[in-house]
Amino acid sequence: GGDGYTALVGARTLVGTSDALLVTQHVVDYIKKRGTVSAGIEGRVIVARMRAPR
To answer: Which of 28, 35, 43, 54 is the most buried (most CB within 10 A)?
Structure first.
């Protein structure tokens, strides 16, 4: 609230703040189901040496 956006002011609440699982709980459940999780480097993030457009 207080950000000036009014698009959702009259919107109906579909899922209450205490009714939904947090992302952290989904992660915990996933790890429990898998048993182990590798925290190794996968090389999916690549640093590009480019200049930002002006």
So the answer is: 28
Rounded Cα distance between 5 and 11, Å, is 12
Return d(Cα 28, Cα 38) in angstroms, integer. Answer: 14
pLDDT in tens, the chain (54 residues): 678 888 888 889 888 888 888 888 998 999 999 998 888 888 888 888 877 777
Exposure string of 8-46, with b = 16+ CB inside 10 Å and e = fewer, is eeeeeeeeeeeeeeeeeeeeeeeeeeeeeeeeeeeeeee
Distance CA 24, CA 37 (A): 15
- Compute φ and ψ for 28, nearest 5 degrees: -60, -45
